[in-house]
TrEMBL record:
<dbReference type="InterPro" id="IPR022227">
    <property type="entry name" value="DUF3754"/>
</dbReference>
<feature type="transmembrane region" description="Helical">
    <location>
        <begin position="229"/>
        <end position="248"/>
    </location>
</feature>
<keyword id="KW-1133">Transmembrane helix</keyword>
<protein>
    <recommendedName>
        <fullName>Aminopeptidase</fullName>
    </recommendedName>
</protein>
<dbReference type="Pfam" id="PF12576">
    <property type="entry name" value="DUF3754"/>
</dbReference>
<keyword id="KW-0812">Transmembrane</keyword>
<keyword id="KW-0472">Membrane</keyword>
<feature type="transmembrane region" description="Helical">
    <location>
        <begin position="204"/>
        <end position="223"/>
    </location>
</feature>
């Protein structure tokens, strides 16, 4: 808490996974390689509210919200968007979409995809807009020019887990990894013990449906008394083209995945193990020192103040100087100033005051 790291909740995790950014492959944790007893036992002995569903395998702490932007042509991504829109249009025309919509209504689910709000713990006016290809108008002109997409990021992420071990040889090592500027939609990159990505079940279904439809149409064309060679060529070309598109899209996504993994390991990983713990200790010390300095400055300028007035003045100073709203921990800062003998506590008009002076006992 002192270093301002918050445990990632299920709601924030759902918001992070509700969209795509640079990573277009389904990434999952290999649960057989992650220990489930350590964290389960810890949270059983130390209960915590609003634990995420994955808290028995690993925990993720996050701090700060930023913005990441990428500008590129996104040729393959634009083609995928066009195909998905055509597929939705086909479902809507054939009335099949109504069947899926009825199933969704049976299980109402909060749509966090459209709000993209961060958390109730964040300031009310803090939000970052997601700019994605799915929401853009794709014309012929847009297909041939660079476009910029945007994704909110977690400025700092810490992942804690332990690898699974054999019964005969227990592994007591705990892994603590520290990352910076991780896009929310690509958060899977920092998860532990990831499985190798593969085609999704939906990709296989679409691939098989297209292949079956293509073959049926091809056989039907060949059985006609006068088969049109151009029709047969068009069908075969379309079927081969779709298969090639699926294959090359997957290969391109795999290359992107490997590049993102490399970048996350070398550019975005700040530290691990003891280095992360030392970094957290340094953050806590700096935070407490800054609180003490700000509190003492206000008392030095004002002379005397109640605890409520001191709290509001410190928050106002930070907002005026840095443009940031915060919940200042004035009680802890005043306790440290009292312990150092810099300020003293006096009673005046039934109110408790703090001043930048020390009262000598008679």
């Amino acid at each position: 808490d002192k270093s301002n790291f918050k445990l990632l909740s299920d709601e924030e995790n759902e918001v992070a996974h509700s969209g795509q950014y640079l990573l277009n492959l389904p990434i999952k944790v290999d649960e057989s390689k992650v220990d489930k007893t350590l964290l389960s036992r810890y949270f059983k002995e130390h209960p915590h509210d609003n634990l995420p569903a994955f808290a028995d395998k690993y925990i993720v702490f996050r701090r700060g919200i930023g913005i990441d932007q990428t500008t590129d042509y996104f040729f393959m991504e634009k083609v995928d968007v066009i195909i998905s829109r055509a597929w939705r249009f086909l479902l809507r025309v054939t009335m099949i979409e109504k069947l899926f919509s009825r199933k969704r209504q049976l299980k109402p689910k909060k749509d966090t995809k459209k709000t993209d709000e961060v958390n109730d713990e964040e300031p009310a006016d803090l939000f970052v807009e997601r700019i994605r290809l799915e929401k853009m108008e794709l014309s012929i002109r847009n297909l041939l020019r660079k476009m910029t997409i945007q994704e909110p990021t977690f400025e700092r992420i810490i992942v804690v887990y332990r690898r699974a071990s054999k019964e005969t040889k227990k592994d007591r090592g705990i892994f603590v990894k520290h990352f910076k500027n991780i896009p929310m939609a690509d958060m899977e990159l920092v998860l532990p013990e990831k499985k190798n990505p593969s085609l999704t079940p939906m990709d296989w279904v679409l691939f098989l449906i297209s292949a079956v439809l293509g073959l049926v149409t091809l056989v039907g064309s060949l059985e006609m008394p006068k088969a049109d060679i151009w029709v047969v060529t068009a069908i075969v070309s379309g079927l081969v083209g779709y298969c090639a598109k699926t294959y090359f899209t997957f290969q391109a996504n795999m290359v992107t995945y490997q590049n993102l993994i490399t970048k996350s390991m070398y550019d975005k990983q700040l530290d691990s193990g003891k280095g992360t713990l030392l970094h957290l200790c340094d953050d806590v010390i700096q935070q407490e020192v800054k609180e003490v300095i700000v509190s003492y400055y206000i008392l030095m300028e004002q002379g005397k103040a109640t605890i409520q007035d001191l709290d509001s003045r410190c928050e106002q100073l930070i907002k005026e100087e840095f443009g940031v709203e915060c919940n200042f921990d004035v009680v802890d800062a005043v306790k440290k100033l009292e312990k150092l003998g810099i300020v003293s506590r006096v009673r005046f008009a039934k109110s408790l005051l703090y001043g930048n002076f020390k009262v000598r006992s008679s």
